[in-house]
Structures are given as structure tokens and as C-alpha cells.
Design a protein that fits this description.
The chain is of the alpha+beta class. The chain has three domains: about 130 residues, no CATH class; about 100 residues, no CATH class; about 45 residues. Helices cover about 40% and strands about 30% of the residues. An eight-stranded mixed beta sheet has the order 1-8-7-6-5-4-3-2, with helices on one face. β9 and β10 form a beta hairpin. The longest helix has about 50 residues. The N terminus is likely disordered.
Amino acid sequence: MKSAKSLLLKDARMALIQSSMRTIIKWIICKESERTAVKSRQIEALPLTNDKIIILNHKNMKTIEVKHRSGKILKIRIEKHISVNNSRITMQLLGAFVVPTVRNGNKSLLVSSCFLKGDTKTEIEKMFGVKINSKADLLLVITDESYAEIEKTYSDFEIEVQEWRKEYDKRAEQIPTWYEMWDFLDWGDYTINSEREIRMFRKPLPEDSIEKVLVISYNLWNISDKKLSDEWESDFKGAGGTEIENSVVITDELAKKWIAKHAEIQSEIQRKNEEEKRIAEEKRIAEEKRRAECFAEARRTGKKVVLHSIFLSGNDVPRRFRDDDSDMGNLITYAMPDGSTKEEFSHAY
């Protein structure tokens, strides 16, 4: 018999799963409504004047107060977040996220239908004296001056992120680095990849919030050359790597050796790719020349000329050419004297 404790744990897990599913379903419905919403309702252009910016105490937050001719004010709250991997800027109106956009030539703020509910919906309806269709996105048309200010906010933010990143990279360059040799198998649905990499790490800065930061990696996956593959295995084991410990710290000398080999491999791959492109281009030019000659012959002789022929069977035979007595034959494409093409099918029996 199951203990009371195990039953309680099971009930708690089920409650957590159900709560998570409700959240996911709510998000899906919200996104679906965005895609299928009827044409967005537009509130008439708001003539906005005397724009004023109020800087709040928080250095990454500010509120833009936009004054309407009638005295109405739209307070747009702008929040900035700068981090190593996810810098972003968001705008909110009455608790709803808004996005600047241009629709049918109108510079606007778009409020997704997902946010047109509760107090947000009530406050917007009260402000403009209209009923809002909560199944459609809402467009608030603003003046060119106001839109320009918002655009400047975005462009200033991009500069701020670039400056922050520049200062961050400068500090990161001062942090000591080390190399690690990684050797492991990646099990895909139908493949097994032997993943081998030389990775450079450094200690984290306060903004990183991780134990170590990957600076760069050199991919030497699926080395086809057996001699080179054996050499890798020998160096990996010699540095202390095992099947269990699939990464090991290595010397700068060993790292530079394999980084140089990585450069050689990449150079060879690039050479092969360029050679394949050259051959493909030569084939394309030759084929264009051959086709041109076929059409020239057709015009000169007044007779159709074979462009190409391919043998087909079974379901590969186009339906219009199928025959109950034959399920294979040649599909022939002709160059016609008038410059068009024509397909005919020659049954094998």
C-alpha cells in the first residue's frame, strides 16, 4: 500500500503539471489570437504636443509623457535591460506592452489583443471614449514627432548597448584564459557524431553569473583522416582525458597545435567548396549553351529538338501520361521552333 507521503507527493506533482499546462495553453491561445485577429481597430490620430520626458530614479527606466490637444496624456513607460546575451528595451502603456509600428502609412503604437483585458482595456476605453474589440490588436496612431522620439530612444539604446559591450569586452580581455580539450559522442536520431573541440575559457565577470565563460571553440568533429583521429585520441588520453572525463585542461602548446590543424581543415573545406561551386558554374554555363543551341536548331529547321529525356516508372510517371498497359517509359522535353517547350511521353511497351 502506498504511504500517505507518496500520495501527497503524487498529488503535488499533478497539481504542478496541471498549473504548467494551463499556463502553456493560455500562452498558445494568446499567440493564436494574435495571428487570427480581425483587422486592427485604429483610434484616430492623436495630435500630440509639448512632449516631456521624466527621468525616474532607476537609471534603466524612464517615462515619456505625451500630451494630447484635448489634455489627455499617454504615459509610456520605457524599461531598458542590458546583459551579456539578452539586451532589450520594452515599452508599456497602462501595463500593456506596446510596439512602435507603421501601418498604412500611420506611425502607431501597437497593443496586442493579448493585453486588451481587465484594467488595461477599461482604462483605454475610458481615455478615448470607445469600445475596444479585445479580439483584435489595437493601433494608437501618434504624431511624427512622437514617433521620432521613440525611434531616437531605440537608436540611443543601441549605442548604449554597444558602449556597454565595448567596456565589458575590454574588462574581459584582462581576465586570464585557459584551454580545454573536449571529446564526446553526440547521439542524434539517425547518426552518432564524434564531437571534438578545443575550447578557450575564462573566469567570469560579475555580469556573467556562470562558473566559466566560453570565449571561443574550434570544431574538429568527425575527423575523417584515421591518422589524425588516432593522434587526437593519443593527445586526449595523454592529457588525462578518459571516456568518463570527456573534457580536460591542456597546455597552450597542445591547444595551439590543434588550433593550427583546425585552420588547415577549414582551409581544405573552403577549397573544396570553391571547387564544387566552380564546377557547378561551368556545368550551368554549358547547359545554358546547349539549350540555346537546341532552340536555335529548332528555329532553323522548323522541327522540334530534344532538350532532355529521362526514364520514369510507376508513380513517377505524370498522371496525364499514364497508361493502363504501361507504367514506364521516357519523358521527353522538346525545344519548339516558336521558343516554347513541349513534353511527350514514350511508353516502354
